[in-house]
Amino acid sequence: MMGPGWYLRRLSRMGPAEVVGRARHAVVQRQWRSALPTPPDWPSHPRFTATLPAGVLGKVSGEAVKRLLATADELMAGRAEYFGVERTDFEAPDWFLDPKTGRRAPSDEYAFDVPYRSEDTVGDIKQIWEPSRHQHLTVLAAAYALTGSSAYAVRVAEHLRSWWAANPPLRGPHWVSGIELGIRLLSWVWTRRLLDGWAGAAELFEENPDFQLQLWHHQNWLETLRSHGSSANNHVIAEDAGLLAAACAFGWFPESAGWRAAAMRSLDVQLARNTFASGLNAELASEYHGLVLELGLAAAIEADAAGTPVPDSTWEVLLRMTDALASIVDNRLRPPRQGDADDGFGLIVDGAATDRWASLLGSGEALFGRLDWWPPVPGDDVRTPLLASLVSRTPRASGVRPGRRPAHLRDAGMTILRSGPLWVRCDGGPHGFLSIAAHAHADALSLEVRHDGVDVLADPGTFCYHGEPQWRSYFRSTLGHNTLELAGRDQSVSGGPFLWTRHAVTKVLEVHTPDNGPARWSAAHDGYAPAIHRRTVELDGEVLKIVDDVLGGGSPGAARLAFHFGPTVTVMLDGTTARLRWTVAPDGPDSFAEEGSSGGSSADGGRAAGSLVADPLVAGGGHEPGSAAAGGRAGSVAADPLVGRVSGSLAGVVRTAVMELPAGLSWTVHRGAAEPPLGWYSAGFGRKEPATTLIGSGSPGHLTTLLRFS
């Protein structure tokens, strides 16, 4: 639970209008406690007309159907996985159980009394909320649509009836957060659409008073308690998208026309506010870029299909977001691992093995057309042909699209340096979005380096949100990123989970990204004022040079320079030289990706799962001074090109690199340490695995690092 101090700090980040708005919400919540609002009468013979055009299901590729059915059949067998936790109860799930902790959230309490942030009381709320987004039901409904097998439809009906019975309006944890209601509504729209043709569809939806009650209360909640102020991030996009989609597809209430109009207006405004002019999501968290783009596309297409005018400005933002995504992905279609990531999707109608980012780019290509500089995109998902079939006219946007692939997205402060198989992300952007920068990390001037899609210098990820504050702090800390820490503190000041009270200000000083020849980037931030950290990065062929300088007056304190390696990279440290090695299949990292993934990407964030895994040199991940790992020269260790064990098959191509580290620092190697955390990689929310981290400690100065690939 958050203490009084957190609430005071949170209040301090709100403006007067937000304070007034939250007071109004509190009044409504008190009123609802004693008297639920009453829905209007249900029309006598509602008809669902938001169906797919004839013949569109035949356009789905056989491979996409195969992947979808593999996931659907796992669900039919009662198996599902959320955030690294396997569930085997999905024939008839307990909607309030957290399988990770074994705790069960209260189901009978008034929704706004549920202490959902308290893991001791409710368990991990993400484990409870995620199945109730009902995105597994859209998968099962898609399996029915593509096969005609009624078993999938029957299971969908069983789950919906179970959920509606267990979650009466405003009771329990599933009525607390608007983003959950919004995504759930979008799932219901697509579930009904995909079940069209099943004999029981009308009885489950249009003729069902339980559905009527749920549908109205979901939409009334979203219209009344919409996120605003410092919370108007991806949450408000999900709320607007769900309300708009439901009011279009199930437009049977007297309020439906008003809900449609209000949601469309808000979505148009909020998409623009949540997006830089360059097209990147303003939260500077790559997975939320994907979430917002998925939600925005689904909602705009739903409105267009229903004859609700979609402003050109909405399509223009979605187009810019699509082009921005195409510009920043690596050659395996993986975007950066920047900021928070919680594996959130807006709409799922594909199997788990379908590449999310390829699917999004495929949808963008179908709607807007590809540019010459776009990377090749495999067109073999379920979602793209279904979405494209609903658009009544080709979206037109008045903005000028980039004539060449952007390397520097100035307003977002993101620069991508490329050289052959090398991809380098340089972070020189704002700390985060809005006054609380909820999903930001203290990662100013950090780098990501990939070789042919494999994480070499990796952003460690996110791992968790609630319940494990030590791990939450580590994964968003300065030391948890490939950048420089001074005086043992973060560049930006945290006020608690999803709250930063002081934001480091970063300025890009130089960008030079020619089509051929050396590329250069330089930026600085004031997070340690009066000291200034300046970093310069040069990429020349297969050589990366990183120079860190600490400038300004005063005593900046001790420095720690961190380099985090991907989990497939084996590291041998000999003094100030680190030798790196990893193995990929002969035809590239995609063959070592998680089963069924495309282009080295996977549902867990797209990590290529290579075959080399190094163990800790010393149990616990720490190292004694004087050891080879700490900079000494123990001959038996230095002679071995691989420190740690090698597991799995060595078949494939061995890649190597050499890293020359700043000699003025004392270097140690860490892997899988828990007290305090250091040396971890989170491939997806709720999952972490040991990975090697090098830490250089000493006095700040002119620090030069060279990374040479061979």
UniProtKB/TrEMBL annotation:
<keyword id="KW-0732">Signal</keyword>
<feature type="region of interest" description="Disordered">
    <location>
        <begin position="585"/>
        <end position="607"/>
    </location>
</feature>
<dbReference type="GO" id="GO:0016829">
    <property type="term" value="F:lyase activity"/>
</dbReference>
<keyword id="KW-0574">Periplasm</keyword>
<dbReference type="GO" id="GO:0042597">
    <property type="term" value="C:periplasmic space"/>
</dbReference>
<feature type="domain" description="Heparinase II/III-like C-terminal">
    <location>
        <begin position="402"/>
        <end position="696"/>
    </location>
</feature>
<dbReference type="InterPro" id="IPR031680">
    <property type="entry name" value="Hepar_II_III_N"/>
</dbReference>
<dbReference type="Pfam" id="PF16889">
    <property type="entry name" value="Hepar_II_III_N"/>
</dbReference>
<protein>
    <recommendedName>
        <fullName>Heparin-sulfate lyase N-terminal domain-containing protein</fullName>
    </recommendedName>
</protein>
<dbReference type="InterPro" id="IPR012480">
    <property type="entry name" value="Hepar_II_III_C"/>
</dbReference>
<dbReference type="InterPro" id="IPR008929">
    <property type="entry name" value="Chondroitin_lyas"/>
</dbReference>
<dbReference type="Pfam" id="PF07940">
    <property type="entry name" value="Hepar_II_III_C"/>
</dbReference>
<feature type="domain" description="Heparin-sulfate lyase N-terminal">
    <location>
        <begin position="127"/>
        <end position="324"/>
    </location>
</feature>
<feature type="region of interest" description="Disordered">
    <location>
        <begin position="615"/>
        <end position="634"/>
    </location>
</feature>
<keyword id="KW-0456">Lyase</keyword>
